Amino acid sequence: MGHMQLGSATTEYTNLYDKGLLYPIARQPQRAEHGIEPNNAPFAGRDLWNAYEFTYLTPQGKPTADVLQIEVPFNSSAIIESKSMKLYLGSFAGTRFEGLEAVIECLERDLTAACQGLVQVRSVDPEPVSVLSARLEAAHCLDDEAVGVPEGGYSTDTLSLASSEVAEVTYYSDLFRSLCPMTGQPDFARIILRMTGPQLARPGLLQYLFSYREHGEFAEQVAERLFMDLYQAAKPSKLGVRAEFTRRGGIDINAERVLGYRDWDYVRHYRQ
Asked: Is 47 a known active-site residue?
């Protein structure tokens, strides 16, 4: 797998199915930086990929237009580099399949093998997707805080407690930016934070998010770093982090890590 040249100036595209385009990246090296031992993560979660521009050919050679959602469990051994995922999905464009069921079986088989974890793929009805444009309700937007980007790059120094009183809060920000570690291109996201515990100071929390602006990590790694940093700062009894990245190449990634919360429904937001 992974014979593509990641981060290269030129890219060879193919419309003939090729699972060898997938480039897995092991989760554990980055987790080890946070002191997370193999098979002992302090969180649960999933990574949701939405592929809005998927197409293949019917047996008659007729093109299709499909929207797919790919769910990768948090405990898979590997993630897939996003450019390689785009090229892999694009390789279906000139390949004939018996139908969508056969396509999904192929996708699940390939991605499960690459990620070393059970990957689920489903087709999304394009009609409701076309009208989704959600603002997060019952949450406090951090973006009105009068703070700027801290100097020195990524840092947890601005995280501090505003109160030791236990409360359940939900925050979000649409001002998050990080960098792709392979290409240096900017990645933009809505960050949603849910926690039950001592309350973090909002200005410092937003500055902490700003400190990622020149920080290079994959979407899944960003979510886990956010989770671990916030857990260390506040020691909440419950914590949920979701990094909802905007789409690139027709694909967006939504990485979710939770402790103490049950299923957390995903609704595509207006920037996706």
From this structure: no
Exactly one of 47, 115, 174, 180 is catalytic; which is it? 180
* CATH number of the domain that residue 57 is part of: 3.30.1130.10
Q: Is 110 a catalytic residue?
A: no
Q: How many domains does the chain have?
A: 2
Distance CA 242, CA 189 (A): 10
Domain range for 194? 140-259
Predicted TM-score (pTM) above 0.85: yes
Give the domain-ending residue among 131, 157, 183. 131
Indicate whether 12 pLDDT > 80. Answer: no
Place of tokens 């992974």: 2
Q: In this structure, are strands 140-141 and 161-179 parallel, antiparallel, or unpaired?
A: parallel
Q: How far apart are the first and last CA of the chain?
A: 29
CA distance 86 to 70: 12
What pLDDT does residue 159 have?
97
d(CA 209, CA 92) in angstroms, rounded, equals 37
Catalytic residue among 187, 229, 252, 265: 187
The two three-digit tokens of residue 65, written as one number: 């237009």
Interacting residues of 162 by C-beta distance below 8 A, sequence separation 6+ = 199, 200, 201, 202
